[in-house]
Specification:
The protein is 73% helix and 2% strand. It is an all-alpha fold and 558 residues long. A hairpin with a 4-residue loop joins strand 1 (124-129) and strand 2.
């Protein structure tokens, strides 16, 4: 009985204690001192004390099971963070597999990849001292500035003359976007060709590879036929355009009624046939400087009469026309035929080659933007029918500005054509001697020299005489099919095959264009789409579809 009374007393006391705690739970405890910095960031005991003080200030107390959960919270957070990290690692691994990787074990010269050795080989320049009967040598390292100038000079050619006619229907802002896109793709194309050249150079040990030889080694004889056909198609299409425009310039300068193309071809063929390569190189360097000076003068004078308000007016922007001007934009930025030369001149130095290609393509892009702006701006200010006007011809006629503008544009056109014809003539000579297995100099070359020059100049002359206004159309076809195939479809396919097709192929350089397969697929798919679209447009497929659809609608109404 006594023990039962004790149990009842203990139960009563427990009830009173719990009641007291229950009352305390609904009252506000007096505020104690704020926890110190040491209490917040000190040892575990201080942290628990600080936590207890905060709970007391808020008027709540943790039950034992809540405290247990609070104690396990860091473990739960750690587990969650670990799971998130594993998910992120898995996502990155899948992304990396999608983009493609090049194993470091495939690099045959790790010193080049690490930068310990910057170049693949060294070029030596020998000097003979006749008096002392000695020969001395020195390191002839290539210059990034010189290589960039070579690329820029090759890019800035007669294609710039067709730019305003191609972009005027789209407008300045859409064509600027198209020009920047073409600049990115063509720069990547040059870097991919440089990567192929470096790897081929390491395999053969032979500097000075030609573009066709590079394509044959990467694609094999069967598929390289496509590259060879695209090479000749592009060069002859551009030569047809240059001969036609050169003939027009001759007629204007000499006051001729016709046969300007014959005169221009005869002068260029005779000059290049008889002059030495050294003399041609010196004259070409002088003309390139004259091209740059005349260009700056034209932009400076034409900017004063351009209507820049109409240039950016929304009513003059037609983005739907941007596709039609892409072939000329791509053609205007062709330089890839000199990339193997740049690789050799810079001794296979990957860093220098990248800087030269990016710098050598950026300067022409800026010039093209300025040229496009002043030509279109003056076309808008003239009040002429934009669907019928050639903006360059408008400046050349001197109807929109200074009296000096017309002669400057004519001189610029002539110089740009001549320098471009020189480059494409040597390109065709290289291709023909390679295909016919002839040397580039010596007695055998001299025997074949007249026939080779006839192969270079006769077909463009004959085609240009059939249509004196073929300049724009020839460049358009060359850009749509020649440039797209040769420099935008084949290089990414060759690099894809080299990087990811056969993992046993030794490589000498890591990818020169980042992000793996993504830019490669983007390049060849975009270019292939352009080829199909332009082919369908030029054979009249879209017009046929529109006409058929209109007939079907008319029949349905009837």
């Amino acid at each position: 009985m006594a023990r039962q009374n004790q149990r009842l007393a203990l139960a009563a006391c427990s009830a009173l204690i719990l009641a007291g705690h229950g009352a305390h739970a609904f009252t506000t405890a007096p505020r104690g001192p704020l926890p110190t910095r040491a209490g917040l960031f000190g040892n575990r005991r201080s942290s628990l004390q600080a936590s207890t003080m905060q709970e007391q200030e808020s008027g709540t107390m943790l039950m034992p099971e809540d405290a247990a959960l609070r104690g396990n919270a860091p473990n739960n957070v750690t587990a969650t963070a670990r799971e998130a990290g594993e998910d992120m690692n898995g996502l990155m691994q899948k992304l990396q597999e999608k983009m493609g990787t090049v194993e470091a074990a495939r690099m045959v010269f790790p010193e080049l990849q690490s930068g310990e050795v910057p170049r693949m080989f060294s070029s030596l320049e020998y000097t003979r001292d006749g008096e002392a009967n000695t020969v001395s040598s020195k390191h002839a390292s290539g210059s990034v500035v010189g290589a960039s100038a070579l690329i820029a000079g090759t890019t800035i050619g007669a294609g710039i003359l067709a730019l305003p006619s191609a972009t005027i229907n789209a407008g300045f802002l859409p064509s600027t976007f198209g020009m920047l896109s073409a600049y990115v793709y063509m720069t990547m194309s040059g870097l991919l060709i440089a990567e192929l050249t470096l790897n081929r150079l390491a395999q053969t040990g032979k500097p000075g590879l030609g573009l066709l030889e590079l394509y044959e080694s990467a694609l094999g004889k069967s598929w390289s036929t496509l590259g060879t056909a695209a090479y000749f198609f592009l060069h002859y299409a551009v030569m047809v355009a240059y001969v036609a425009q050169g003939g027009k310039n001759m007629e204007q300068i000499l006051g001729m009624d016709s046969n300007g193309s014959i005169a221009f071809t005869a002068i260029m063929c005779a000059a290049l046939f008889s002059a030495s390569s050294g003399l041609v190189e010196k004259l070409n360097n002088v003309m390139v400087l004259a091209v740059a000076a005349s260009f700056l003068s034209i932009v400076g004078l034409a900017a004063g009469t351009a209507d820049f308000g109409a240039l950016i007016d929304a009513s003059n922007q037609h983005p739907e026309q941007i596709i039609s001007c892409l072939p000329i934009l791509f053609l205007s930025m062709v330089y890839q035929n000199v990339v193997p030369t740049v690789v050799t001149n810079l001794e296979g130095d990957r860093s220098k080659i990248t800087k030269a290609i990016v710098g050598g393509t950026t300067l022409p892009m800026v010039m093209f933007l300025a040229w496009n702006a002043v030509c279109l701006g003056n076309a808008f200010s003239s009040g002429a029918d934009l669907s019928q006007v050639d903006p360059v011809a408008l400046l050349q006629a001197g109807e929109t500005g200074s009296a000096f503008l017309g002669p400057l544009v004519t001189g610029f056109s002539v110089l740009a054509l001549v320098t471009s014809v020189i480059g494409f003539t040597y390109g065709l000579l290289d291709a023909w001697t390679d295909k016919l297995q002839l040397p580039m100099k010596g007695e055998e070359f001299e025997q074949w020299k007249p026939a080779l020059y006839a192969l270079v100049f006769a077909p463009p002359l004959l085609l240009s005489m059939t249509d004196p206004d073929i300049f724009y159309n020839a460049l358009d076809y060359g850009g749509a099919f020649g440039v797209s195939t040769l420099f935008l479809v084949l290089p990414p396919i060759m690099v894809w095959q080299e990087r990811y097709g056969d993992n046993d192929t030794p490589l000498v350089t890591p990818p020169m264009v980042p992000f793996g397969k993504i830019p490669l697929a983007s390049m060849w798919k975009a270019a292939a789409t352009l080829i199909v679209e332009q082919g369908a447009e030029k054979v009249g497929f879209f017009d046929w579809v529109a006409h058929t659809w209109e007939q079907m609608q008319n029949n349905a109404i009837v």
